[in-house]
Write a structure and sequence with these properties.
Chains: A mainly beta, B alpha+beta, C alpha/beta
Number of strands of chain C: 19
Order of helices and strands of chain C: HEHEEHEHEHEEHEEEEEHEEEEHEEEHHH
Distance between the termini of chain C: 45 Å
Number of helices of chain C: 11
Number of domains of chain C: 2
Radius of gyration of chain B: 38 Å
Strand order of the largest sheet of chain C: 5-6-4-14-15-16-13-17
Shape of chain C: globular
Helix content of chain C: 25-40%
Strand content of chain B: 25-35%
Structural class of chain C: alpha/beta
Oligomer: heterotrimer
Shape of chain B: elongated
CATH superfamily of the largest domain in chain C: FAD/NAD(P)-binding domain
Number of strands of chain B: 51
Largest interface: B-C, 108 and 109 residues
Radius of gyration of chain C: 21 Å
Chain lengths: ~90, ~1000, ~425
């Protein structure tokens, strides 16, 4: 069971959190200048890597803040966590 | 006490002052407190305890604990019956009733025994090669009845299960010598320790150990360690507790069985332990040898025989032969001799066994070194073992002389398999050690310390020092480094092992690899011959290792055999993955308290008690417990729902709308934010007014709807469906934090802070005017879709002129605690007006009449705003909003999209069935054009009404279609969904 | 050799020492007409139908581990075709019909047990959804019946009948032709049959990359050398994104762990398959007697094939809500696969964005029941260059146009 360190609350168990998707995810706009393919990229296409990935997580049953994790999708090792907007060290994922 | 040749008069850890009576396969026996069911059966001379899965061969006890493959029993009856327990793990209780499984009438005389004769027709995987004609279903019922071991209970489980969560610095798995030493070291070093052992008492192998530790008898030493640990304060000692699984980030799951569950106490506890460091001192499991007829009752592991004698004071036979490839079985021989058995010989596969052999000879036991087992003799029990001497001369192996040894107990020791399951589950790699003939823990996660027999060290002195060091290391890793003192010591003795897997081939007789599933050496040969060579293929094809014992005594032998058969080595063959649970875990304990009403507990509104006390039929609506309708003496459900509807249409009704979502949105950017979250424009919403809006996801799909109310310039109250509140609120937070962090907006979910009562009907205003309020309720001052804040009967209130019935409607929001008082006041003051509480059934029918959309019922997972008649708004809104771009895709513009319409049955008395599909032509029943989504009889209109989603419905008004449902068709016409009061006179009163 | 009871008896006489190999272990050749990457059910079925239906035998199936070792060996073995949309009904019912004849077709007992599946509804809304769904099935030509509580009890006597049950059973849709099949047998049977037709099955051979000529893919680079083919087909559920990345494009797929577990074997206690719309639990009893069950996905992407404890506990709680009698049974073994989850829970059977490459992926939690159908239509696409009518709509392009075939409800597993 994942042990995740919320940047505000500290380490907590998996059931307190919700996964929110891989990063980076850039919302294209304005809509009139976005072609169908670019919109489909944003909605659907993902790297889905086998390895380390940068993701958004929510501390749903705690402070209700979103934050960023770098996690391995193979071993579930968590390499780093950061608040949104904070930069993570290079080369993690 | 009657003398019993199978029970020693003295010794063992049983309590002879507490005799216990029990029943097995219908016969009465007796044992003692401290016995397991297995030891008690052996003490009563019961040799055949079960039958094998496929061939119903008679089987006896092989082990003494969780490695047991044969002694599978069903305990008790009725609701507390438990199938498939291992008799070796069942603690004997007075009055216990047990029976063998998968045989009839009992294990001793099984009517299915003749199946053994068909053994030749049932090699591994035989069912893949036959049973195809006429079909598998012809044979399946008989095969299913023959399969399975015990019987599932047919009543709900009366017992309770609990969960506990713990953190610790060091979790020590295993309370044998290595584990005790580790726990001691870690505790003395100052760490917070949990020690867990799966047996009723600590000590592990020390429970039958003769040597002394630190000068104390082994059991006394164990007791002193336990005292020290329990007194230490930061230590938890758990017995009867199996650590069965290791999950991510060192979360270990443990299953504790409570010894004497009180009638109100839990039967088992599931422990979630987050351990910074884990010491795996789980020991090792002895291996049998593979040779023809090695499954006869009376053939057991040497360590098990020793355990029965030393711990349970049982003689497992009269005359024993010990066949071994290592030193450990010599101790078994000595113990059995001391228990009064005659030891015919110790057969050692090694040519030069060393000191243990000399010691045995000094005790008068013959040792035949350099001999291999050839085959066992006997039919329902072992009668002898044939051995052969193998001389290796100049590298060549020559056959030597055969010799038959008589015995009724054959103790085998083919090596030891470390219990590395938890380490492997923690992704620790294993490496094969040829000298110890075992898979040992390799270099793995730093927080895992394998020690003692689990690390391949069988000798007691080694376990003690190794365990102590591991405990100290683990403690140090968490910063606890007080001086732990010296490791415990004992005499040094040898514990050499060697690899011996299987007798040389040559006999046609079956040599068993997996005893429970009847897998033989020949089966593995067959798999390899058919080119199923990977270990996973072999395992699945032969089913070796897949029985209830999960291959604890067979996996290694199977691997070694496979290596031999494929001409490779054990490391090359690899091994199948260790998966949790290490030992089977009761399903009830995994569910814990999340059963019954605590499984997805229903939410209750502030009026729940009132509803329950006034005849409400309460049902699950979106996770809330809400009144479907209100029952009354002598009235049917239909009567009552009609009465509730009539009240709303002709007088006044009250409805508990508390679960409707309420989200406060405040800030200078609130309007801009909501404008982005809604499909409809919200920037122009005037203060004091509300606007109905749709919320979409980024795919343009309608996910919720509701009225957005502007209380002040920078203060909005968003209402959502009752099922959508949490979801929409979470969505708001996500957009604000992740996409638009610069917007100055605060959102709060206040759904459960405010109670909500909808007062609806032509006399609604009349009723409200009877309450004391500073809000001007007159029509001119309070138009439809307005919101007013003030006080009602002295408490803060927000009243909105919104509703779902299509009548004049006021939704009153007040702090939740006042809801019941207000509700009762309304009912009292409105009694002469004919006020009635209204349930959800009535509400749904009223809103269906009105043609109001119910998101999730009248929309499906593809509906976009244009589908529900709101497409024109898109062009009028210039700004981007969630989902906008998706509405521009080609699929959003398809002319044949399903659109929200009304459906008028040709027969006004026919209520079109919800879920019925619209088809164009009654005869061509193969293309759905949509479906009926809401439908009911409308008393107000005197005919049935229905709503639905129909292909291109918006352009097909007036067209005749057919509705197909359950084999029948109903003719109908596509009409506008606005059935009742289309001009909105009632609404705007 | 044709398997039969007679063959068993004959071989018993020679102590089973004369059985031939199920399949060869050939060395990979440098060229083939088609390479199928992925030796699971879909890949093997594709190769089989390429050979059998289209006479294309110069085919290699490349499997990085041992055949059938991925999701095909890890699922809960349910087969059914009770889907909502006509497109889905066509594809899954084609698959079920192929399953119905498969043992005879490939001469290997896949132990198809059409014992029926009950999908339970627990409140009014779910009953309405059931009605809508059942009528859709009828219009799609799929067998289905609506059962009330008393009939349901005859099918599954141990279902929770307590008046205070959290999710009382109000009704169910029964598909009689649905049931279970033995997953290993499906993989081994297809492999043996394909091998007999000349297909080379290359195990322990991992694709490291793709070989290109200009903008086309012309082969693969593997741990056992280079293999060229004008058509390379991917059927690697769970790893689709990994291979797509090697070919330079992304897929609308996220890979999750889907857990399953079995209990100890008991005498027959459940004779049909049961799924619940409320709890998401689904359960059947194998012919060995083990209860086989699963539940929802673990909620974050994973290639670990393990799953975590909270999801497992939730699945067990869901099962016990349906069958409180099973509480004293014990879990024997637990595992997980890696499922390709796609937004609308429908597969992708289409050319890849790169020439020469073809995709069969996105099956999510429902790939096992679709093995014959998926293989059949994929083979058709590879052989003819055109999609089979039963594969209509399952394109990569639908993610751009928005033409989803959203079977989220039909799959029963929420995500």
């Amino acid at each position: 069971m994942l042990h995740i360190s919320c940047p505000w609350c500290g380490p907590r168990d998996e059931p307190e959190f919700r996964w929110g998707g891989e990063l980076p995810l850039v919302r294209p706009g304005p809509p009139e200048r976005v072609c169908d393919e670019a919109w489909a990229e944003y909605l659907f296409m993902r790297d889905n890597p086998k390895g380390f990935v940068r993701e958004r997580w929510l501390h749903a049953l705690g402070c209700r803040q979103w934050f960023v994790l770098v996690r391995s999708t193979i071993t579930h090792e968590i390499r780093a966590t950061a608040k949104l907007g904070e930069s993570l060290p290079e080369g993690l994922a | 006490m009657k003398s019993n040749e199978w029970r020693l008069a003295r010794g063992g850890r049983i309590d002879r002052t507490r005799p216990l009576a029990f029943e097995f396969d219908g016969k009465r026996y007796s044992g003692f407190a401290g016995d397991t069911l297995a030891s008690a059966l052996l003490a009563n001379g019961v040799r055949i305890v079960g039958r094998s899965f496929k061939l119903h061969r008679p089987r006896g006890l092989v082990g003494a604990w969780c490695e047991e493959p044969n002694g599978i029993v069903q305990l008790e009856d009725c609701a507390r019956t438990t199938p498939n327990l291992k008799a070796t793990q069942v603690e004997l209780r007075d009055g216990m009733r047990a029976r063998s499984v998968n045989c009839w009438p009992n294990a001793r005389r099984d009517a299915f025994a003749p199946l053994q004769l068909l053994g030749g027709l049932m090699p591994a995987g035989f069912y893949y090669k036959t049973f195809m004609w006429p079909s598998w279903r012809t044979f399946e019922p008989a095969i299913r009845r023959a399969a399975g071991l015990g019987t599932a209970p047919t009543r709900p489980d009366p017992d309770r299960y609990e969960e506990r969560h713990e953190h610790c610095d060091v979790l020590v798995v295993g309370g044998g010598p290595a584990g005790l030493a580790a726990a001691l070291a870690a505790t003395r070093a100052g760490a917070r320790v949990i020690l867990a052992d799966d047996r009723p008492a600590l000590g592990g192998a020390l429970q039958w150990e003769a040597r002394r530790i630190d000068g104390l008898a082994a059991l006394d030493w164990t007791a002193s360690v336990e005292r020290e640990l329990r007194a230490a304060g930061r230590v938890r000692v758990l017995t009867r507790t199996t650590a069965f699984g290791c999950y991510d980030h060192n979360l270990l799951a443990l299953s504790e069985k409570l010894s004497e569950p009180a009638s109100t106490g839990p039967r088992e506890r599931l422990w979630h332990v987050r351990a910074a460091q884990v010491v795996v001192a789980a020991g090792a499991i002895e291996r049998p040898m593979v040779f023809p007829d090695n499954d006869l009752p009376g053939i057991m592991l040497a360590s098990a025989a020793m355990t029965y004698a030393a711990q349970y004071a049982v003689r497992p036979g009269r005359r024993a032969v010990v066949v071994t490839s290592g030193d450990s079985a010599y101790e078994a021989a000595h113990t059995l001799q001391a228990a009064g058995l005659e030891i015919s010989a110790i057969v050692d596969t090694r040519a030069e066994p060393g000191e243990p052999a000399a010691s045995a000879r000094r005790a008068g036991i013959e040792v035949m070194a350099g001999h291999h087992p050839l085959r066992a003799h006997g039919s329902r029990a072992v009668k002898g073992i044939e051995v052969e001497s193998i001389r290796a001369e100049a590298g060549a192996v020559q056959e030597g002389s055969h010799l038959r040894l008589e015995c009724d107990l054959l103790c085998v020791s083919g090596g030891w398999t470390p219990s590395v399951h938890l380490f492997s589950q923690a992704r620790g790699p294993l490496r094969y050690d040829p000298e110890r003939a075992a898979l040992l823990p390799g270099s793995g996660p730093k927080s895992f310390h394998c020690t003692g027999a689990a690390a391949g060290n069988l000798a007691l002195h080694h376990c003690l020092t190794d365990g102590f060091a591991a405990g100290r290391e683990a403690a140090k890793a968490v910063g606890a480094s007080r001086d732990a003192g010296r490791a415990p010591t004992t005499t040094v003795e040898s514990a050499a092992t060697s690899a011996f897997w299987t007798a040389p081939r040559g006999s046609r007789r079956k040599a068993w690899v997996d005893l429970q599933n009847d897998v033989t050496r020949a089966d593995l040969e067959l798999a390899v011959r058919e080119n199923l060579q990977s270990v996973e293929h072999v395992k699945r094809y032969t089913t070796t290792g897949m029985a209830v014992d999960q291959g604890k005594t067979s996996n290694m032998n199977a691997l070694a055999l496979l290596a031999e058969l494929t001409g490779s080595s054990i490391p090359q063959v690899g091994n199948t993955t260790f998966r949790p649970p290490y030992d089977p875990v009761t399903l009830g304990s995994l569910a814990g308290r999340h059963v019954g009403s605590l499984y997805h507990p229903l939410r209750r509104t502030p009026l729940d008690s009132w509803h329950a006390g006034h005849g409400a039929v309460l049902e699950d609506f979106g996770g809330w417990r809400r009144p479907a309708w209100y029952a009354a003496q002598g009235k049917t459900r239909e009567d009552r729902i009609r009465a509730e509807k009539r009240a709303a249409r002709t007088a006044v009704s009250v409805f508990d709308g508390s679960p409707l979502g309420k989200i406060e949105v405040r800030g200078p950017d609130a309007a801009m934010f909501l404008n982005r979250m809604y499909y409809n424009g919200m920037k122009t919403l005037a203060v004091g007014r509300g606007r109905y809006g749709l919320m979409l996801n980024e795919h343009g799909i309608i996910i919720d709807d509701g009225v957005c109310l502007r209380i002040a310039e920078n203060h909005f109250l968003v209402s959502t469906t009752s099922g959508g509140a949490s979801r929409i609120f979470a969505g708001f937070e996500e957009w604000l934090q992740c996409e638009w962090p610069d917007l100055q907006v605060l959102v709060t979910n206040v759904t459960s802070a405010w109670g909500n009562i909808a007062v609806a009907g032509p006399r609604a205003r009349e009723l409200l005017l009877r309450l004391e309020t500073d809000i001007d309720l007159k029509a001119g001052a309070f138009p439809h879709l307005a919101i007013r804040c003030g006080r009602l009967e002295g408490v803060p209130a927000r009243i909105a002129r919104v509703g779902f019935t299509g009548e004049l409607s006021f939704e009153i929001n007040i702090p939740a605690g006042y809801t019941t008082a207000l509700w009762e006041l309304l009912l009292a003051r409105g009694a002469d007006l004919g006020v009635l509480p209204m349930g959800i059934e009535a509400l749904q029918e009223l809103r269906t009449e009105k043609g109001y959309l119910h998101v999730g019922t009248d929309t499906d997972g593809r509906s976009i705003p244009a589908d529900v008649g709101m497409g024109a708004l898109l062009a009028k809104k210039a700004d981007d909003f969630v989902g906008r771009r998706s509405l521009e895709r080609s699929d959003s513009k398809r002319p044949d999209r399903l659109q929200f319409v009304g459906l008028e049955a040709r027969d006004p008395a026919a209520v079109l069935p919800v879920g019925g599909h619209v088809i164009g032509d009654a005869a061509r029943r193969n293309a759905s054009q949509g479906y009926v989504t809401s439908s009911c009889m409308s008393e107000a209109l005197g005919r049935s009404v229905a709503l639905g989603l129909v292909q291109a419905g918006g352009n097909r008004t007036g067209e005749t279609v057919h509705v197909y449902s359950g084999g029948r068709t109903f003719p109908a016409r596509i009409v506008s969904p606005r059935w009742y009061d289309p001009e909105g006179h009632h609404l705007n009163a | 050799m044709r398997f039969s009871a007679l063959a068993l008896a004959r071989n018993a006489v020679s102590f089973h020492r004369r059985w031939p190999q199920f399949w060869r272990s050939p060395e990979p050749r440098p060229h083939y007409d088609v390479i199928v990457v992925g030796g699971g059910g879909h890949g093997l079925a594709t190769a089989y139908y390429l050979a059998k239906e289209h006479g294309i035998r110069n085919v290699a199936v490349i499997e990085k581990g041992w055949l059938g070792g991925g999701n095909t060996g890890r699922n809960t073995t349910v087969v059914r075709s009770n889907y909502f949309y006509p497109e889905s009904a066509r594809l899954y019912d084609l698959s079920l019909r192929l399953y119905e004849g498969l043992s005879r077709d490939i001469g290997f007992n896949i132990m198809l047990s059409q014992r029926g599946i009950l999908t339970l509804a627990h409140n009014t809304h779910q009953m309405e959804m059931l009605a809508r769904w059942l009528n859709a099935m009828h219009l799609n030509g799929i067998d289905g019946e609506l059962l009330g509580p008393s009939e349901i009890r005859k099918w599954a006597p141990l279902l929770n009948d307590s008046p205070t049950a959290r999710y009382p059973v109000k009704g169910a849709v029964l598909q009689r032709r649905a049931g279970v099949a033995r997953h290993d047998a499906v993989a081994w049977g297809y492999a043996r049959a394909a091998d007999a037709l000349g297909v080379d099955i290359i195990q322990n051979c991992e694709v490291l990359g793709f070989l290109r000529e200009g903008d086309r893919i012309v082969g693969i680079e593997t741990t056992r050398g280079r293999i060229c083919a004008p058509k390379v087909a991917l059927a690697v559920a769970g790893h689709s994104s990994v291979l797509a990345a090697k070919a330079g494009f992304r897929l609308p797929i996220t890979s999750y762990a889907l857990q399953a577990f079995v209990t100890e074997p008991v005498k027959p206690a459940l004779s049909c398959v049961v799924m619940s719309m409320a709890t998401g639990a689904y359960v059947s009893q194998s012919d060995k007697g083990e209860l086989v069950t699963g539940g929802a996905l673990d909620l974050y992407p994973s290639y670990a094939q393990r799953g975590n404890l909270p999801t497992l506990q939730a699945a067990v709680a869901g099962l016990l809500e349906l069958f409180p009698c099973f509480s004293r049974l014990r879990m024997l073994r637990q595992w997980a696969g890696i499922v390709d989850v796609v937004h609308d829970s429908s597969p992708i059977i289409d050319r890849a964005p790169v020439k020469g490459l073809y995709l069969n992926c996105g099956w999510g939690t429902g790939g096992f029941k679709a093995i014959p159908g998926g293989g059949f239509v994929f083979a058709h696409l590879l052989a003819t260059g055109r999609p089979h009518p039963a594969a209509e709509g399952f394109t990569l392009g639908r993610f751009t146009s928005g033409a989803m075939i959203d079977e989220g409800a039909a799959a029963g597993i929420s995500h």
